[in-house]
Model the fold of this input.
Amino acid sequence: MNEILQGLAQAFWLIVSLDTELITISLRSLYVTLTALLVSTIIAFPLAALIVVTRFRFRRFVITILNALMGLPPVVVGLLVYILFSRSGPLGVLGLLYTTSAMIIAQAIIITPLITSVAHQSMQGLWADYRDLLISINTSKPQRIGTLMWDSRRALITACLAGFGRGIGEVGAIMIVGGNIDNATRVLTTAISLETSRGDFSLALALGFVLISLALSVSFATHWFGKTERGGLW
Amino acid sequence: MIRILFASAVLFFVQINTATANQVRLAVTSSFHNSGLSDHLIPHVETDLKLDIQLVVVGTGQAIKLGQNGDVDAILVHSKPDEEEFVKTGFAKHRRQIMFNEYVILGPSTDPANIRLANSLLDAFRRLSKVKTNFVSRGDLSGTHKKEIEIWKKINFKPEKYGKNYLSVGSNMGKAINIAVAFNAYILSDKATWLNHKNKGNLIIQFEGDQLLHNQYSFLPISKKRHSHIKSKLVEKIEDWLVSEKSKNLINSYIIENKQVFTFNAN
Done:
């Protein structure tokens, strides 16, 4: 119990004193997860919309698989990415192992199915309402996809936040492909794991509180910029 | 959209290309890092040689695997038989002894197995095998785990016979100590990690000072013949530094709780 209070106090001081190491690590956490999120959304949103507006043979099967992949174990993804990018692996020549790029790739793989599934679910509901209208005014497929994506933008932001949450708190995959290298690939979660193994629970907890505040600020920022729950806008 | 894609692709590759010239990757055993010696030593190596050293902290077993795959330029580990095998199979050029410290048996202050009275390490382990009180094993094929296996073998006892009080945890040294603290269990640990560990609970050093507890650390440069991208020249510089007089002074002067924890013994 005492450790929790100590952790809170230490977290407070780390933040107020603008500890350089803490700032670098936090920024790196943000950089990795936000980039992974960007890559994921570029793939996930159009893919989700495409699944909504088209009918093909294995549609149901694909949706089931995507839903199942939401629970993709990070540690397995980490291992697969490690094997791919290891010097003895097929993509070893790129020299990407133990860089933030490898961490971004691993996280993108983890969060893409999650975002696709959530986005698909919300656009599916919208499509039920829009389908007849969009077909009757003779829109093309890209137009339909565009309309769906724009009109479900709030839900898509929620999908992004879910993806961000899964990415920023993830440790299994980035520990394997990033290696938790000081000044290169250490992020908040791997730093917490390291401090735990040194038995310094209050510092580990302090970093944990920083991580939670980071996730909170991102969520607040999103809603503030998005002007949600304000008059005149939905 | 295309612009964003292009920009991120450019960023991606710029990052790859900048991250090379004077960068060396070492896989080091967790005790080297958890003990705090790496923070004491590595900054000096970096400034003296103008290198950027990246430490990947793993157990000896995994460090050797990373070396085999060519993912690191050299390894610093502590398990002699594995190291010799590693050199024999041609993955490392040679094996260079750097320093040693010692293993200790940690246990609850009440010492239910009475190992404090043991007259040798083997006697201490025999007492443990008879009392079968909680014992935490690293269980991750690290140097420390291999040492533990070696000792059980020497007294002809199979840890499987220990029963459910034998906890094989598959974690690094620090996390295994945390578990031992929680279970009030005995555990084999290197002394440096223990002295630097913050969460000590009710555990104290219950047995130390046997020949068998000698813990030798060695540096093994990965062979360029196996992996052409290895930065042999830079690794050579690091090796020369590690066996130098300056390294000797720094290693021998690393003090935790008024105790010298590592002893330089390179030749």
Observations:
- Chain A has one domain: 2-196+205-223.
- The domain at 2-196+205-223 of chain A is CATH 1.10.3720.10 (MetI-like fold).
- The mean pLDDT of chain A is 90.
- The CA atoms of residues 29 and 187 of chain A lie 5 Å apart.
